[in-house]
Amino acid sequence: MAEIVSLAEAVERAVHDGDAVAMEGFTHLIPFAAGHEVIRQRRRDLTLIRMTPDLIYDQLIGAGCARKLIFSWGGNPGVGSLHRLRDAVEHAWPVPLDIEEHSHAGMANRYVAGASGLPFAVLRGYNGTGLETLNGSDGAAPTIKPITCPFTGETLTAVSAIRPDVAVIHAQRADRTGNVQLWGISGVQKEAVLASQRSVVTVEEIVDDLDPRPGAVVLPSWTVSFVAQAPGGAHPSYALGYSARDNDYYVAWDAIARERATFTRWLDQHVYSVLPRGDAPPRPPQEVRP
Amino acid sequence: MTYSADEMMTVSAARALRDGMTCFVGIGLPSSAANLARATHAPSLVLIYESGTIGAKPGQLPLSIGDGMLAETADAVVSVPEIFNYWLQPGRIDVGFLGAAQIDKFGNINTTAIGGDYRHPKVRLPGAGGAPEIAASCREVIVVVRQSHRSFVERVDFVTSVGYGSGPGDRERLGLTGAGPKKIITDLSVLEPDPETLEFTLTGLYPGVSPSAAKERTGWDLAIAADPEIIAAPTPAELTALRAFHGTQARSSHH
């Protein structure tokens, strides 16, 4: 059964130095508040896994939390580069960062394999790409290999399972026993949680009853380790039904992250010197109904 | 009405989409063009974004592939594994609409790294995203990209997404199920693969653009079709629809 705890306690107990951590949320429901708490608790040597590193991993990488990044698209959507990611890869600042690159289809299938308890997944993908050639060429264990279909003889592609130590996601709601409900663009969060040893779920609100929602993903309490209330915890990403994506913030991030000095100042002001969101007196929880 | 080269490109790309098609849409220029098509001649165009939104009908241009309005207006919202495995992979989708940072004469796309080597590139780009499998598995692909000597190269520095590889037979050999790139639509011209060599050849020019100008902004020895089509300038209706979209976008800073 999930324990309902503060965000600080959830991160303290679930995320350890050296862990492989998957903070998922495909543009929608990105767990920024939890990411900031990982930075505040000064976790180090993390292997960060995420399809789209987005601003959240730009922040963790710039804060020196990561030693490796596994990803499939590392940009600021519609805006440009992730400057902290590039600075780490190109100039080892603030610490060196190894990278392992995939396609979205490859990453999604790796999570599916992890959630399914299988060592690999099969797809039509990567054939003829530089990603396939590159994989494993740096001495790391390969994660993409050809495989022959035992029924047709066709050559397909196998990708190894992702099994993170901990998954971190944000959802709209949980009930008081820790059942989690999320809806809208659901990305790969269910697979990430089921593939991981432990999980932290931050939510907009904790309610008495989870009335059904069209297309909602429900993670039963017994699949989740910790639930923490963190209203607005996806900002500048969003939680459908509660908030809108803050596109202006994504655009503004470009200038903040471009220079080490402006980024460091941002980190001091907006992460190190603030309380975890869920631990501050919460605003009255309410869903904005259309 | 006067118009910019980018507007001509977007209009030209929108015209390549027919009503009723299913279209897997990349963000940026392809998304602008696909939304313009839906707002003008192709109201039943089915827009599919890699965020799992099928049949999205955004009222304004999304900044990201996961903006809330895509989910709110979609016919169906599915998970990311499902959009790739059930919808893209089996070849259900008519056209993949992609952008590129660098493209070569066989339509191979690089969105990973330019110059130097992979570990020490001159320019590091965002990477693959959904593009490799979109390029492999959609029934056909259309690429929308600004044309320049630097971005149109003999051979891409890194093959993120395969076009025709190194020529005829490569897609079949690699087991890629879709037919590959059928058009490259730029801010100067339209290129299509030569039926025999599969090398991209200039087959269409925008009003006022000379073949030599297009050649100058191409990094390989660009072949020109015998009688390239002169593509019609954007109509006032097309421009009005396109500008209305851009006017409503929260921020339009596509790269």
Please describe the structure with a list of short key phrases separated by commas or semicolons:
heterodimer; A: 290 residues; alpha/beta; Glutaconate Coenzyme A-transferase; three-stranded antiparallel beta sheet; 24% strand; B: 255 residues; ten-stranded mixed beta sheet; three-stranded mixed beta sheet; 8 helices
What does it look like?
The complex is a heterodimer of chains A (290) and B (255). Chain A is α/β, with parallel strands linked by helices and 290 residues long. Chain A folds into two domains: 3-101 and 163-279, Glutaconate Coenzyme A-transferase (3-Layer(aba) Sandwich); 120-160, no CATH class. Helix content of chain A is 29%, strand content 24%. Chain A contains nine helices and 15 strands. Chain A has helices at residues 7-14, 32-40, 54-62, 83-91, 104-116, 130-134, 189-195, 247-258, 260-272, and strands spanning 3-4, 20-23, 46-49, 66-71, 75-76, 80-81, 98-101, 120-123, 144-148, 155-160, 166-175, 180-182, 198-207, 217-219, 226-229. In chain A, strands 1, 2, 3, 4, 7, 11, 12, 13, 14 and 15 form a ten-stranded mixed β-sheet that branches. The two termini of chain A are 33 Å apart. In chain A, 56% of the residues are buried. Residues 281-285 of chain A have low confidence and may be disordered. In chain B, helix 1 (5-15) packs across helix 2 and helix 2 crosses helix 8 (236-248). Chain B is globular. Mean pLDDT of chain B is 93; it is low at 249-255. Chain B has eight helices and 15 strands. Chain B is an alpha/beta fold. A ten-stranded mixed β-sheet of chain B has the order 4-3-2-1-5-10-12-13-14-15, with helices on both faces. In chain B, strand 1, helix 2 and strand 2 form a beta-alpha-beta unit. Chain B has a single domain, classed as Glutaconate Coenzyme A-transferase (3-Layer(aba) Sandwich), CATH 3.40.1080.10. Chains A and B meet through strand 6, helix 4, helix 5, helix 6 and helix 8 of A and helix 3, helix 4 and helix 5 of B.
